[in-house]
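Quick log. Single chain, no ligands specified.
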Amino acid sequence: MSTKKQSKVYNCLNRNLSKSIRSKQCLLCLEPSQSTQTLCSPCENDLPYLGHACRQCAIPLNTDSVSLCPRCQSKAPPQDHALCLFLYDTPIDQLISQLKFHQRLSYGRLLGGLMAKYLKHYYQEHPEDSPQAIIAVPLSRKRLAERGFNQAEILSRPIAKELNLPILRRACQRNRDTPTQLSLPAKDRRRNLRDAFDITLPLSIKGEPIRHIALIDDVMTTGATLESLAKTVKTSGVETVTLWSLARTPLHI
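-> predicted structure:
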């Protein structure tokens, strides 16, 4: 991304998205855009896409000759598959931050739409991998009351519509308000989330048990949150769990 464009990104993200929509300007570069998603094609193409990654945890890989990272080869995680669209980098990191901490819900719809387009293309090529339902990683009651919304559910709505999948909104709950993960190392993050989730309703559709569920969150860092939920979901009898995340933070593995 050029310095000129990057400076525009920083400025634009502090403005109200509605101006971009009314004036048909690209959210990032302020150039005219006909896109209904408020990003022009060059800026959309310039986003920090993840590229080749581990099939099970989505950590970026330097080569396409292997499908699993060393960590997943040595110890398989509870999930069977993971799909992420972006690296957690400019401007995706800023858009997510504005969504979560400044209530820019329009950014969530934009990002969810980009994720929906990516997943639709993926499952058209791999229909055998398609899940039957979606669970958005739940927030604790305290965090939900403070924020007023669950960013993972905001992201999941365009995806559910595009893929024609149900969102299981009341099937799972976070049973305690875990301390923030941001300052914790990987081992402590996993310990922090041990037994953090409960299944509160049967995971079924029209009385038939669900065999394959997708879990969605905004960012994967160590993967501890999604892996903890994946383990809980599998304990309830689900055979296959796929993780969806908008962005992935690289790890040193």
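Residues 105-125 form the longest helix (21 residues).
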